[in-house]
User: Fold these one by one.
Assistant:
Number 1:
Amino acid sequence: MADEPLVLGIETSCDETGVGIVQGQTLLVDTVASSVDEHARFGGVVPEVASRAHLEAMVPTIERACHDAGVGLRDLDAIAVTSGPGLAGSLLVGVAAAKALAVALDKPIYGVNHLASHVAVDIVEHGPLPEPTMALLVSGGHSSLLLVPDVTHDVRSLGSTMDDAAGEAFDKVARVLGLPFPGGPHIDRAARDGDRVAIDFPRGLTTGRDLERHRFDFSFSGLKTAVARWVELRRRAGESVPVADVAASFQEAVVDVLTKKALLACREHDVDHLLIGGGVAANSRLRALAEERAARAGVALRVPRPALCTDNGAMVAALGAEMVAKGREPSELGLPTDSSMPVELVQS
Ligand code: KG4
Ligand code: ZN
């Protein structure tokens, strides 16, 4: 292992300042400083608050990661950094830090796509990625279905959300139900005592016509509105709101669509490995239903542990190390950030 490339990865696309160090395919350390508590009272991530928090956390997080891994900065072979997509100001802090390290240490820098690194992180958890792999990425910022022939240079978007991301829908519905931000884990917990068929909430983009035009796209905004309206009608009628039943029925509508479309994509593209990543991959019902449906379809399921599903530096280091191993060209030192970078940019 000692002669395998040692790569430090920096992730600042949203509200987590993540620094990870990977050697080859082995994760040495994954250090994350989150500013989520500072955003809670606003009910969502405030970009300027996130940028400032990254600025304050960056140097201490790099120092802590190196200390915990027993690695000196001069031992590193390369620096990897998320260059997009994400919040513009947040990305800028991470990329500036990575460039400073690359210049000072005279090491190559690899700018990586955030969505591709959500996929690559599973290499440090479950070993080399089967090629191709199908990836369902579901978080507060994105919901995407990706066909991944090679995570270092060929990642193809089959579909994504047309409106709210899956996690965003969880967060907004939690707010309607009076649960704290971020709402996903609270809905997950409340749903355990609820009946998932109590209320028949809509499944977005699943009718015949929608499937023709938006086969692998998602839409959760109609579902969110349907839940809000259902709750509002109950309240106006002076009736109590069965929080557990609403949570369970809403959650079922989300995970039903996610798992159905992901497995349809596997079947139609003849892929027998499905990876699920992003913060919503921590959802217990999503994991259970995906396991059940994947097993029935003969598809092998890979879900990284929850700490590697949410944004972190290990995912960036993992993709950087894979790029070094596959001999991919490093980025220019003038590496730009691109807040709306499409995943297809991964293609060479
Ligand atoms: O990947 P992540 O940490 O950050 C983004 O890139 O957005 O994902 C955060 C999202 C939030 O919307 C949160 O509510 C959701 O993931 N989430 C969950 C669960 N845990 C986190 N959603 C559903 N069930 C969970 N158990
Ligand atoms: Zn993410």
Number 2:
Amino acid sequence: MTEGGTAPAPVAGRNLIAGEWIESVSGRAFESRNPADRDDLVGVFQAGSAADVAMAVRAAEMAYPAWRAVPAPKRGEVLLRYAGLLRRDKERLARALTREMGKVIAEARGDVQEAIDIAELMAGEGRRMFGDTVPSELPDKWAMSIRQPIGVAGIITPWNFPMAIPAWKTMPALVAGNTVVFKPASDTPWCATILVELMAEAGFPPGVVNLVTGSGAEVGDAIVDSPDVPVISFTGSTTTGKRIAERAGRRLKRVALELGGKNAIVVLADADLDLAADGIVWSAFGTTGQRCTACSRVIVEAAVVGPLMEKLERRVRALRLGDGLLADTDVGPLINETAAAKVEEYVEIGRREGELVCGGSRATGGALDRGVFFEPTVFAGVAPMARIAQEEIFGPVLSIIPVADYDAAVTAVNHTRYGLSSSIFTRDVNVAFRAMRDFETGIVYVNAGTIGAETHLPFGGWKETGNGHREAGHAALETYTEWKSVYVDFSGRLQRAQIDNQPG
Ligand code: NAP
């Protein structure tokens, strides 16, 4: 550990199947290391295989009839207990998260808080889970719709929100009465293990939640291909999401995809430029630019490019890189060397497509040499269709795109394959409302950055950011429930809809 103390002993991770913490039948394992200090071995985890997935799916199937029979409000009580345990252990979880994934501790606390928020929200869904009760067109007949669980939910998550995203998926799945097979990202198996340990403590019965760690190619594919997993919820890259959708489509599975983004902040000439600069820096370099909602494009009215750049550059140059557990760190490491190589590649492309204002290199020297650090990087004078303005880099790289006016800004915002988050800084309420209407994204912010979604509204994106599903809010239940329409005829006679009640 890099906080000046002695490194704790590495965790010996296990899979959780049918309530038992067990080793993989593969006999193989993989390491998880601290990206701020690659010498710090967080733990060794099971390299799961298709055989482990088969066992986990079987366990989830066995647990399903009893769990779905638990009244939803009682299932909600287990979620509420879980939220309480997350709250009790929030600091421990946040520190583990920073150590394994790298984001600064304040953001790690926010990640855990999102998990708490969704657990509490979904606990309440146990007492709502609304359907419709509507009048029948026939006398003495009742008509209503109810939600029912689907079965075993396969949940596959990325590393960038290693506590929030698994909670965003498991909580609605579980309160709705499904059981779960959960495969976390291979960069954050410890975070997943802690989350699942607390689920067991909260009282989810054995087999209701099963954890299998291991690679996407082995564990992920096995979950997606399993005929006994009717619903898949996936968050990750658009490339992987498309692949999953194709495979799952062969079995007509329900697949909810939350994928990549290329999120823009628009700054108009009348904006509060200090506020805009603060919002841009937070959105672009928070989580080292590794948020699906991270801002990677600033689309700015030409009249204020100069003053905005001056404010931005000053703020970006002041950011301090380091171990996220240290109090004075603003920006943590990238997740791994593959991510750093990708950022380096795009920076080289950026040098040809724009003017490098600051950053542009690996950050080294002292303790930084032990981790995977990259300087916060800004390119100015970037064209809307440049590659660095179109492709998801998923790192601390920001493109400044000058435009003539609001209409050109809208065109630039919308001209990408993604559609997750967007924002506009302006003092003109009319223009703000136009942006809320015009931006083709699932989330729009006014006078705030592109990050900061709350759990009680739907979360997700348009276009290649997903396939129309939403997480969080009531909308999350759509992924994990089937609708059933129920008609009760208490007339005691045959009544024919659309026939007996027609004139003539
Ligand atoms: P990724 O490489 O697509 O991996 C995501 C998850 O999928 C990991 O658990 C990964 O396992 C697994 N996986 C990989 N190949 C698979 C396969 N063939 N079948 C099944 N599962 C497979 O994405 P990432 O690099 O972890 O995450 C970054 C991406 O996630 C970015 O594009 C970001 O925008 C997106 N993201 C989107 C949202 C959103 O809500 N829209 C939120 C957060 C992140 P391994 O780790 O073992 O490879």
